[in-house]
Amino acid sequence: LTAAPTLSQGDNLSDTLQRVFGYRDFRDGQQAVIERALAGEDTLVIMPTGGGKSMCYQLPALIMDGVTIVVSPLISLMKDQVDSLIQTGVAAAFINSSQPREVSYQVLRDLHAGLIKLLYISPERVLSHDFQERLSHLNIAMIAIDEAHCISQWGHDFRPEYAALGQLKQAYPHIPLMALTATADQATRHSICERLGIEPYVLLSSFDRPNIRYTVAEKLNAANQLRQFLQTQNGNNGIVYCSSRRRVDDVAQRLRLQGFKAQAYHAGLSQQERAEVQDKFLKDQIEIVVATVAFGMGINKSNVRFVVHYDIPKSIEAYYQETGRAGRDGLDAEAYMLFDPADIGRVKHLIEQSEPGPQQQVEFHKLNSMAAFAEAQTCRRQVLLHYFDESASEPCGNCDICLNPPKQYDGTQDAQKVLSCVYRLKQHFGMHHVIDVLRGSKAANVCDRGHDKLSTWGIGNEKSSEHWISVTRQLIHLGFASQDITRGSSLKLNPAARPVLKSEVALMLAEPRIQLTNTPSSRHR
Ligand code: ADP
Ligand code: ZN
C-alpha cells in the first residue's frame, strides 16, 4: 500500500464526491452528516437500507487527517466495501477473524505507518485489549459504528458484544463518533445514544420506499395464495420469509414441485450450502430463496422484485428491514404478507415462555405494533412511517388498502349464523369444525357426532369457507367470541354475542377479501 493523498479541507465536498466516487449529487442527508463529522461532532445517522450510509463516513475519512475506524459486525460486507474502496483508489483495509494471520499483520503494519484511511473491524476485535493498546498509538480521525441498532436491546438484533462500545467515547471523548443504522424507533434511538455516550443528535432521512407496494392478505389457503402471487411475478427474483426452518424446507420443496426455481436457506444448512444459495441468487440462477430471517443481512442485490412474508415477522423493524431488500434499484417491487391472526397468538405464546423482565415487555410491545400494522384498515405506508415517527400526510396509493379499500357490509346475519352454530356445538369445537357444520359438510367427523342433525347445519352453504373464516376471525377480533387456547382453540361466546343473536344490534363487518388483492404492477421490467 502507498499512502493515498489526503485531500485538503478546502476541497469542495461535491467535487470530492464527483472525483473519487463518481456521483454528482449527495443523497438526502449525506452532506449534513459529513459536515458534522468534519466539524468534530457526534451524530446518529438513521437512513433506510440503500440510502447511502457508507458515504457518510467514507468521504470525510478521505478529507480528515488520520485513520477512520469503522466498526461493523458483518464480515462479508466488510470485504465488499473494502474491495470497492480499493478499486476507487482509497486506502482501505479490514481486520477480522476470516483472514490469515500474515494478512492481518500486514494490515497492522500499514496502519501504524499511517497508510490506511479507513479500517474496518469487528466490535469484538476493536474492544480487545490488544487493539485498544494499538488505538492509543494511532492518529484516529473518526470512529464510525455501523449497524448501531445492535447496541440496543430495543433494536431487533441486539448483540451483547456491541453493548460495550460505549467505552470508545469514554476513551476518545474528542474524536467524532458516527453511529449508523437503518432502523430505529424512538426508544432504540434513545438507547443507542445513551449507550454510546453521545448527545442525541439524530439525522434522520426518510424511510419511505415509494416503489415498494405493501400488501397484507388474510392467510386462508397459504399454499395457494403463495402460488398465485408467484405466478404474477413471471420469474422475477424474490425472497419468501418463513418463521421456522421446517416451514422453509416444506415451502421450498413445494415450490420446486410446482416448477419454481426455489431454494431453501436457513441456519441449519452448512456454511457452504448457504454460501452457494446466496451466490446463485446473486447471479440470478435461483428465482426464489425461501428463508428464515438468517437470510438477508448484507445481501446486496438490487433487483429483488418481491419479498413475501409467509408468517408474521416479530416486529415492524424486522418487517421493514426484510421488505426493504426488495426494489433497491428503485424499480417497482412487491412486499406481500400473508396474515393469520392466530399467528400472533403463537408468537405471544413463545414470548411468554421467555424469561420475564424488561426484554420480554419489549418483545410484547413490538409484536403488538406488528399486529396493529397487519390489522390496519388505513394506508399501510402511513402506519409504517408513523411507526418510525415520520408522518405521511396523504394515503400512498400504492398499498392494498389504498388500492382496494376495505368495504363494510351489514354482517349481522353472518354473525348470527356463526354465533348460533358455536352455541349449538356447545362451545366445544374450534373454528374449522364450526365452519364445516355451517357449510353442511357430510364428513365423518361431522356426521359421526350427529352434527348434521343440528338446526345450524348447512345454513351457511352459500358462502365459501374462506368467507366464514374471515367472518369468524372478525367476531373474535371484535370480542363477540373467543378461542380457548387451553382446549384445542374451541370457540366460546362472549357476553357481547347475546344482543347480536337476539337481533338487538346490527353489526358492520369488513367484507372478506378472498381474492388475491394484489395485481401485477405494470411498470416491471
Ligand atoms: P446503506 O449502507 O445505507 O444500505 P450503501 O452505503 O450501501 O447504503 O449505499 C447504497 C448504494 O448507493 C451504493 O451502491 C452506493 O454506492 C450508492 N450511493 C451512495 N451515495 C450515493 C450518491 N450520493 N449518489 C449516488 N449513489 C450513491
Ligand atoms: Zn397506502
Automatic annotation (TrEMBL):
It comes from the Bacteria. GO terms for molecular function: DNA helicase activity; hydrolase activity. SMART domains: DEXDc, HELICc, HRDC, RQC. Residues 34-202 form the Helicase ATP-binding domain. Residues 225-370 form the Helicase C-terminal domain. Its EC number is 5.6.2.4. SUPFAM superfamilies: HRDC-like (SSF47819), P-loop containing nucleoside triphosphate hydrolases (SSF52540). Its cofactor is Mg(2+); Zn(2+). This is DNA helicase RecQ. InterPro entries: DEAD/DEAH_box_helicase_dom, DNA_helicase_ATP-dep_RecQ, DNA_helicase_ATP-dep_RecQ_bac, Helicase_ATP-bd, Helicase_C-like, HRDC-like_sf, HRDC_dom, HRDC_dom_sf. Belongs to the helicase family. RecQ subfamily. NCBIfam families: recQ, recQ_fam. It catalyses: Couples ATP hydrolysis with the unwinding of duplex DNA by translocating in the 3'-5' direction. The lineage of its organism: Bacteria, Pseudomonadati, Pseudomonadota, Gammaproteobacteria, Alteromonadales. Keywords: ATP-binding, DNA damage, DNA recombination, DNA repair, DNA-binding, Helicase, Hydrolase, Isomerase, Metal-binding, Nucleotide-binding, Zinc.
